[in-house]
Amino acid sequence: MMRPSTLLALAPVLASALALLPPSLARAADDEPAAEAEAKPEKPVAPWRKELHMIEVGWLMGALFPAKDHGLYGVEPPAPPRSFKTGFDIGLRLAYLPVRFVGVEIEGNVSPTKVDVEEGKRAVLFGLRGHVILQLPTRITPFIVAGGGMFGGSSKDELVGKKVDGALHVGGGLKIYVSKWVAIRIDGRDIMTPSYAKAAGGELSYAHHGEFTFGVSFVWGRKGTKMWSRG
Length: 231
Prior knowledge:
Number of domains: 2
Shape: elongated
Distance between the termini: 67 Å
CATH class of the largest domain: Mainly Beta
Low-confidence stretches: none
């Protein structure tokens, strides 16, 4: 054990050694708790990540191109088949997007037309469908859709009759959000229904109806038109 007189003799030496330490080492112990106490600044969150539960309601208008080999016969399928003429297409749509880039949508449309025969009588084609929509979270927004529903036709019984078939569809298009409240939209669809061969008692095959529309939608819940925050 060191004598008290020895400790007293070493005290000046230890004090001199501590005084010679670099200032950075001397301050390190004091600065460390303060650095830990400072909270790191949060990174800004992009607006599209903040946008939840958006609603889009709109109308559509365009043209419907019925398939010549359709199976929409409420009477015995005639030979040769009777097709529908291209018709003006109008309708409504409602979309729900839990986030900006994915959602679900329902659409309904009506297309006044005629049966494509000599002195063809008036007819109406109509549809109701739902689909999943995937889109880019940008102002100019390409998108794709896929889903199903029903597609039907109605005319004088001696021509085609009345019938509703199940339908599948795929499509895509482009939205332009002119503001956070309004979007302009262009769509294309391939609507698939059982064909004339199936209606005549043959094997299942599909007729492809084309649809091209223009529309305007009103938007609720979107906070901006840009994808990324600029600070």
